Amino acid sequence: MTRPQPTAEAIMRTGMGFQASKTLLSAVELGVFTELAVRPAGLVELRERLGLHPRGARDFLDALVALGFLRRVDDVYHNTEETAAHLDRAKPAYAHSGGMLDMANGRLYRIWADLTDSLRTGAAHDESADGDLDTYDALYADPVRLKQFLASMTGISHAANTRIARQVPWKDYGTVADLGTAQGDLVVQVLLANPHLSGIGFDLPAAAPVFEEYAAENGLRDRLAFVGGDFFTDDFPRADVITFGHVLHNWDLEKKKLLLRKAWDALPEGGAVIVYDSLVDDDRSENAFALLMSLTMLVVTDGGFGYTAAECTGWMAEAGFSRSWSEHLIGPDSIVIGIK
What we know:
This is O-methyltransferase, family 2. The active site is at residue 249. Helix content is 50%, strand content 15%. The protein has 340 residues and is of the alpha/beta class. It folds into two domains: 9-86, Arc Repressor Mutant, subunit A (Orthogonal Bundle); 155-339, Rossmann fold. The N and C termini lie far apart (63 Å). The model has no long low-confidence stretch (mean pLDDT 93).
């Protein structure tokens, strides 16, 4: 019996995947889903509302139908349930999905184009590539790009943040400090779910206005404060729990270990450090999202990389934590908890 010949279908689907990706990202940028949330429309009307040239408009919109992001009924285009819920700028959920796609389109898509060079040289191709500033100083120097970046961090982290707010036994603690807090969604979700807690968000000073606006929107101005500083040169704020959400992957090994040592120093006896990331599985063969995120760290940071739960618990033990363990959160994200 002859064996079927292997096909190139999966290879080509992945190799040409950038076409589908950029089609969706451009649709978000152009406001396709927001316009259709206002009113479904036929080709000519929608083309005019979006400001599209006649040459590519029909193929673009029908490609979105074929990809499953739009429906076309009697030549009228509609959102799907998913795009109506998550990609309409007028809906709150846009901040958690569309915000991440805005950043991917405006920043990551172009940076990833230089992946081959980063693999050969180890050099990043982010905003710091052509200047003297490091990755985050360069990113935080532009207020518009900074706000987009901080909002995108909320988007990629929100589902895990809401899970952490309920999965960790917060009743045992009174205060929490979120290091590298960005817009502050992790500590915001923790405080919303645990009214007895008060919190601090710690990040570079330029993040303060975005953080404080988000805290006020969530009614937490009285329980949540921002502290500006550099967590490599300044002391950590003291709290019962210190959290790092999608933070450790940004740094090289020496800095990862330094952050955990500084967390140990800032915690009381019995306090906890909570680290979460898209952790690479121990066999390094299953969590493709985490491995691709590690490659993102290659192209956008000077030394960042993804890591496994076993590696993280080892670094915690080296920093002085008496015990540590990992738990799955949601999707590709997992948590590592260390107790002082």
